[in-house]
Amino acid sequence: MSSREQILAAVKQNQPDLLPLPNVTPFQEITYEDALAQYEAVLTAIGGKMYRVNSMEEVKAIIKGSYNSLEKRVLSLVPELDDIATAAYEINPAAHHLADVELAIISAHFAVAENGSVWVTEELLGHRAVPFICQHLATVVSAKNIEPTMHRAYTRIGAAEYGWGAFIAGPSKTADIEQSLVLGAHGPRSMTVFVLND
Amino acid sequence: MTTETKDHAELAEIFNKDEDRVDWHDETLWWIRAKRDKSVHQLPEWEALREAASGIKHNVLSNLNAYLQEFESAAKANGIIVHWAADAKEHNEIVHGLLAENKVTQMVKSKSMLTEECHLNDYLATHGIEVIDSDLGERIVQLAGEAPSHIVLPCIHKKKEEIGDLFHMYLGTPSNMSDPQFLTETARGSLRETFLTRKVALTGVNFAIAETGEFVVCTNEGNADMGAHLADVHIACMGIEKLIPKREHLGVFLRLLTRSATGQPITTYSSHFKKPRAGQQMHLVLVDNGRSIQLGREDFRNSLKCIRCGACMNTCPVYRRSGGHSYHTAVAGPIGSILAPNLDMRKYADLPFASTLCGSCSNVCPVKIDIHDQLYKWRQVLVKEGYAPTGKKIAMQVMAKTLASPTLYHAAGKMGRLTIKYAPFAVSNKLNPWYKQREMPSSPEQSFGEWYAKNRKK
Question: Residue B108's beta-bridge partner residues?
């Protein structure tokens, strides 16, 4: 008997009588009076930064104030922001050539008010490694796309097809050394979210 | 104890030699527990979430056979290669086989308590494979030649000065550097090099979804993703109890996990791996290693509901004051003490006794495992099966005899009172374990029985 058959047989023999699956739909009703204010408060508390902007031009101005794409490599996956990025190039499957990216700008499907995260899938990223390998991460999300909780987030995702997706909440961090919080563990040292009124 | 196995009390004694360190360890973990409370109290629906999570896990355990098959076929359809390992040995052989197949002798690994449980690193080392742990805390204990002392905070027992010394020795930092910012930056640089040069990355799994065949990995550092997305081969290892039925259930578990663990609203990264990247191999190893046996133990089955948040450790008065290494098992603390005896009753017979049964663990558990009840039940099983230490067995027999006989009971009580009063040195010495870190109580003049006999007549 293979290990597969052996494990499945042992599990079948030892599992108890079927117990019902709880209904989790009532959690869908949890909301915030001002989801955007909640989002901003949580994102700030976990080390991120949020800007409310009215246009992509505003996003460009803010990014240009902090990053010079002639000196450091700026990668944009938001077509409207291509002109503030370092000259366009092909993202190849190995992704190791992304190691020198200073700032990556991506868009997100939606944000989650309760925990400061954004939901992204690989189609938005060019490569799965992009939001991890860059030194700093900027994300653009529409103000219409703020979900209150993770319950609503998964309702929104539904049965969506993707190869890889992630909730990203703030900069990469660690507190493994004596519980001292350090931003920039292996991934980005900062995360900026632009909430676009459109 | 006459057996050769290690004993929690003896190991705790080593940890307890440095009182300042014990106090610091105790306070640090309690601080994390307090952060958990603060975070949890912001959600009015917290108890309903715990109840839902508990119910979902009960359903999973009662239908695990079907969920495993549902998961396997969905994962295969997604292009994931699924392996089954009956025990630790088979798990290690599968991982080694994949490395050999790809002609690779170096691997980067993110946190996986399962691979600790299986002693994967040691096994691979004997086969000439170098593994680098990429979680900062795990990297630190790896450099120190130690095991993690906590499932979420692997080097919680280490002072920054000790970490500075390790980095000086192995990563070339100047001596006497202990600033966490500087040390983290050093590790970042060193591990980035590792991520960029490894062809195989291994990660753990926090949740696997039967419905969709995807699995979710949670980290704050981003190390699991850095490893997996830059490698040609991704190997993910999970215990069979990590399954949940549907994607929507992640909404419940991701809300509970990190709030319980560190008080954060969510980990920085909650990565959903559904299909391999173009050109990448993605392997998933489903491991039993005693879990199907535990599933059949009615009293201990619920321990398989665990989502590895570590809240029971942070709150445990025994864990906080004895340190994770005293538990001599991969998963320390209260939950580890009910999981380990299932794997080996003789080796881990001491662990269910390393508890005050105060119940704090059960109160904070996000999936409502009756941890302290199970600790109590394990004690009964272990004594019945003959695994209790000889000293404890004799003491219990003497006590049973004494309590069964009024004459013996009264005589023993009198003797105890006289001893403490006239010969305190007989109990206040190092031979009496109750005297360690404690003053013995002063004894009353008479027992309640004597007082009653005297005063009843008045």
Answer: B132, B201
Out of A162, A178, A186, the one facing B188 most closely (by C-beta) is A186
Q: How confident is the model over B233-258, as pLDDT tens digits?
A: 999 999 999 999 999 999 999 999 99
* Sign of the dihedral through C-alpha B169, B175, B179, B185: negative
CA distance A49 to B143: 35
Q: Are B251 and B49 in contact (CB under 8 A)?
A: no
Q: Do B226 and A115 touch (CB under 8 A)?
A: no
Residue A5 lies in a domain: no
- Measure CB to CB from residue B265 to each of A19, A115, A155 and give the nearest one: A115
| Amino acid letter for position B36 | R
Task: Provide the percentage of residues in chain B whose pLDDT is more than 90.
Answer: 83
At B230, the pLDDT band (50, 70, 90 cuts) reads very high
Q: Using an 8 Å CB-CB cutoff, list chain A residues near B56.
A: 21-22, 24
The domain total for chain B is 3
CATH number where B199 lies: 3.40.50.10420
To the nearest whole angstrom, how far is the Cα of A21 from the nearest Cα of chain B?
5
Considering only alpha carbons, which residue of chain B is nearest residue A187?
B222
Strand order in the sheet with A136-142: A49-53, A190-196, A136-142, A101-107, A73-76
- Domain of residue A166 covers 27-196
- Domain containing B419 equals 405-455
* Total count of domains within chain A: 1
Q: Is B337 a member of any domain?
A: yes
B383 shares its domain with B410: no
Smallest CA–CA distance from B196 into chain A, residue: A96
In this prediction, residue B4 carries a pLDDT of 53
Residue A10 lies in a domain: no
For residue B443, the tally of other CB atoms under 10 A from its CB is 16
Q: Is residue A81 part of a domain?
A: yes
- B277/A93 Cβ within 8 A: yes
Q: Indicate whether B18 belongs to any domain.
A: no
Contact residues on chain B for A187, CB-CB shorter than 8 A? 221-222, 225-226, 268-269
CB pairs under 8 A between A and B: 249
Per-residue pLDDT reduced to its tens digit, A64-91 = 999 888 889 999 999 999 999 987 666 7
- Using the structure block, give the residue that is written with the tokens 């408060």: A41
CA-to-CA dists, residue B386 to B147, B211, B296, B381, angstroms? 30, 44, 21, 9
Q: Are residues B410 and B357 in the same domain?
A: no
Q: For residue B149, which residues of chain A lie inside 8 Å, CB to CB?
A: none
Same domain, B225 and B367: no
Using a CB-CB distance cutoff of 8 angstroms, which residues of chain B are in contact with residue A155? 248
If asked whether residues B186 and B221 sit together in one domain, one would say yes
Same-domain status, B147 and B175: yes
Least Cα separation, residue A68 to chain B (angstroms):
23
The CA distance from B133 to the nearest CA of chain A, in Å, is 13
Query: pTM of this prediction?
Result: 0.93
Q: What is the ipTM, given to two decimal places? A: 0.97
* Among B45, B62, B279, beta carbon nearest to A17: B62
pLDDT-derived band at B399 (thresholds 50, 70, 90) equals confident
Q: Are residues B417 and B370 in the same domain?
A: no
Q: What is the largest CA-CA distance in chain B?
A: 94
Provide the pLDDT confidence category of residue B1 given band limits of 50, 70 and 90: very low
- Can you give the pLDDT at residue A88? 61
Domain assignment present for A141 = yes
